[in-house]
DNA sequence: ATGAAAGCGCTAACAT
DNA sequence: ATGTTAGCGCTTTCAT
């Protein structure tokens, strides 16, 4: 592989001139530009990112930290962010953190050594202060880490409202609300939004783990004791578990009981019946997150520290209504 | 961040000695070892991977190239490989290639500049000769790129046989076989295996795109004209599309028509009914792939160039039988 | 067993 | 506008 010096020699200039040409900073005469360009083509030269990073202490890599890569929401997010970041010339590293604090810190340490240019954080296991100390451009995606750290997330309060309004428009008067642990802020917001519109709606609330199977078992039990006109599952994975439980009870959807999910992952259109859901606009989240990181790298001002993306209702067959 | 020279100074030795200590090559006295160890602890020193890579022309990163990160099979595979690779001290970069030849070549070029230590290739858009020229340890995952390139994949011929045998055991006499394009070797193998057991079974074959919706439309049309006792969908995504089509026709599964899928992705246990499927053992594929790459890095002999992993039947509710 | 020195490929003052 | 020089943090001969 040719180096910058090979190019310089071939073009009859010094390597600094080539470097300036490459980085488009400093002056380079038109003449030099031409010969350098030709030399690069001739030698099929590509700058070595490693050497570049070592010299500048900045790489062209950004990383996305997620708790579980097999969770479809995160994969869809990863895809969007990867594509966007690629447009800006960055390579995205996807890091699956799992639930171990230690692994996350270790991985971040490694990323720092690689002079990672920026971080998208979709995990939440470490104290915010740890991230703040990092001194790396970063944006929290779909969760608030702290006031200071720029954030792009869905307006979950609005999402909760949308879910509630839809159910009420479907003539529902009592509903079972399946939510994640109250430690999860995003869950709290969804539920708060839901309540904020509830008016005379009767709500029973229950906490479930994220897994499909766990939710199924839980709902099965619930349905044994009591009937509901509708169920609001605050994630689509839970909605699928709920669907399975309802079907196992031989209840019809939406005739006997209506169901609305949350997230908008692809799978909700593959079930029978398809599931009405409050969809997060993942593409937009990805775009904004990347732009936000980009601005930080350019030291531009970030006008809104916390950006909210509105979710939208996707009406399918698990609810009545229009 | 402290450098190797800081450690050397603190330990009262030269940086070469520290380097030798770090890489466990060359001689280092017990005494030196102790003081270096202490210095490292004291300064919380971590070697800079970039600098290391630049000097050695080898990084600690491996990459997995997939055509579509939102395809659950690949995410599950990615998770396994990531975890395995992490055990060996590697960071895995997940690269979503999409369908563009150009992007794949560009990305590989970038990876080379980063002195990528190894490649897991789960795409198939480029001529095998391109990969062979690369001079990077690599393993083809779930597809054969060429004779020369080490491969770990499911024994799809066996998988096809398993599917066929199961259907026959379920009393099926005629079946619709939904397959991917004949350009996909893995599809060909599955189908070949299926036929190899078919005996008196009547088989109708049809080609479908991978997408759930596309398959649904196709199957819907098929079912309009004719009835089948069973359908073999050669991927789970297709199986889900098929399921939807069958249900839309108001046929019962498995009473009116039985269904078997292929891949073993999580989703098949979330549909109603759950789908019987021939499951690829992704964990094992991941483990073997990483070990195979590792061996190449150690210049160990690779006993079997092409490793086959046996798939297993997961019997669920979309088929009759035991 | 250890250190000095050169170099990996690039960037960034600084001088011209 | 361009070249010289000195690193970035590490590895690796080659002496000693």
From TrEMBL, chains A, B:
HTH lacI-type domain ranges (all copies): 2-56
Task: Name the keywords, alphabetized.
Answer: DNA-binding, Oxidoreductase, Repressor, Transcription, Transcription regulation
Q: Which Pfam families match?
A: LacI, Peripla_BP_3
A GO MF annotation of the entry reads:
oxidoreductase activity
* Keyword field contains Repressor: yes
Sorted alphabetically, which InterPro entries does this protein's record hold?
A: HTH_LacI (IPR000843), LacI/GalR-like_sensor (IPR046335), Lambda_DNA-bd_dom_sf (IPR010982), Peripla_BP_I (IPR028082)
Q: Which CDD domains match?
A: HTH_LacI, PBP1_Qymf-like
PANTHER family (UniProt xref): LACI-RELATED TRANSCRIPTIONAL REPRESSOR (PTHR30146), RIBOSE OPERON REPRESSOR (PTHR30146:SF95)
Name assigned to this protein: LacI family DNA-binding transcriptional regulator
Organism from which the protein derives: Kurthia gibsonii
